[in-house]
Amino acid sequence: MPRFLLDSTKRASRRGLLGKLENIAVYLILFFLCFAAVILAFPANGQLQGKEIQVISAFLAGGDIAVLCVLWRLKRLDPKTLMFLLFLLGVLMRLSYAAAYPAEDRQHDVFDADGHLQYILRLADTWRLPDSNNWQYNHPPLHHLLAAVWVKVFQWFGVTDQAQLAETLQFLTCFYSCAMLAVVYRIFDENPFGRRAVPLAYALVCLHPTFYLLAGSLNNDCLMVLLFFTAVLYTLRWYRDPSLKNSLTLAVAIGCCMMAKVSGAMIAPVTAMVFVWKLAVLGRERKWRLLRGILAKLAAFGAVCIPLGLWYPVRNLILFGQPLGYVAPIGEDAAIYCGNEALADRFVPLLSPDWTKSLYCDPFEDYNIFAYATKCSVFGETALSGSGVAAATLLVCAFILITGALTAMVYVLARGRSERTTLFFWVMAAVMATQVGLFLYSNVKYPYGCTMDFRYLAPAVLPGAVFLGAAGQRLWRSKREVPQYLAVVLSCVVFLFCVSGVFLYLTLS
């Protein structure tokens, strides 16, 4: 079962059509799990609700963890089985969150007059693009089109109430969040970077609370992150095999990522770096025929990617004069404006009272970016009503892991070895740099509480997890005691982070 559900496309492709069908089956299984969850949790049917879903999920999560512990105790917990159990637990937590909590909780720009939900319902009713760029109508329509199809299916079955349709839409975004787990597994399998490192990194991606929150969010963030990770996967595959197939698949992944949300374009510099790296290697080795062939394939890449990613922004530029990097204006008189605070107070991590005001962030009062993003990464933008001890443990672990990931990135990059592994780590570093760079730039240009939301940094969870795992692997291998102690501490922090997050989100009221 673990090999069937999580085998890599690289290996499965060697088995021809059967292998490809097995890989497609992973996503179909996840999709139908999400669809079945609608039936179990749909309010109109009087089915399982709230606490009942949490109790069932808690038993299933406890069973998953118990199996993991028993196999570990019996010394039969191989890395593939461990990652399979983490995969199941990650899917369970996403389904549980989407099923247990109402659609109106913890949303972003969804229920406004021209918000994401109206965008979706308008497409479902008319199948025509918006005739304005008001508020959220400025976003590209890929997520909204897919959601409109989902809505139409439920309308055919007699579901017409807007609130009920919003409830069902949570399971579409939940599918996006679950599908990320399969994509990230393939990224790690494409470039294995340590027997201990990969499961530790995968645990952080599977059980990071920001992906629970994205699973229940009705806006376009979750689809963008899924396609961003897909583009990272095919960027790495393209370097290994720059075939026309991989070039066009990568073009579609990046183009669709940008068609989900314009900020998905931040994968483009990462991919461009890999293109230049590959061309430089071939030029150094004087493989001119291969180099010319790759240039032709890059032309095909551009012919697909650029129109796919830019057609909607260009449309809005022509129709409404909307700049390509447009962000809907909020205004300095908004309650969430924080541009009047000193830059040192906003950007220096440890010089802010925001750390001690509350466990949770407040977009109307807080202004320190590092404190806000750290809290938001595990709690979202609202105060939670679960265990205070679990929440405090989760926050402390999040702070250690975020600072540790930045330190680990420097440590790992400074100790690169083979070309392939070095490329993998530099791709991860480029993802981290572009995400953090855009985040800081956005907070300088748009100083609002909502701009500090960690959902704008969600793709950075992947490189952060990679560098923490790789650093832990190298610390474990050290023959000195201090590095080995640090590796034990890191493992304990990751364990506490995952367990406290699972406990907190299964006990929210």
Automatic annotation (TrEMBL):
The chain crosses the membrane at residues 21-42, 54-74, 81-100, 171-188, 222-239, 251-282, 294-314, 389-414, 423-442, 454-473, 485-506. It is a multi-pass membrane protein. Its main location: membrane. Keywords: Cell membrane, Glycosyltransferase, Membrane, Transferase, Transmembrane, Transmembrane helix. InterPro entries: LipidA_mod_glycosyltrf_83, RgtA/B/C-like. The keyword Transmembrane helix applies. It is found in: Cell membrane. GO terms for molecular function: pentosyltransferase activity. It holds the Pfam family PMT_2. Residues 138-300 form the Glycosyltransferase RgtA/B/C/D-like domain. GO terms for cellular component: plasma membrane. One of its GO terms (biological process) is response to iron(III) ion. Coiled coil: none annotated. This is Glycosyltransferase RgtA/B/C/D-like domain-containing protein. It comes from [Clostridium] leptum DSM 753. The lineage of its organism: Bacteria, Bacillati, Bacillota, Clostridia, Eubacteriales.
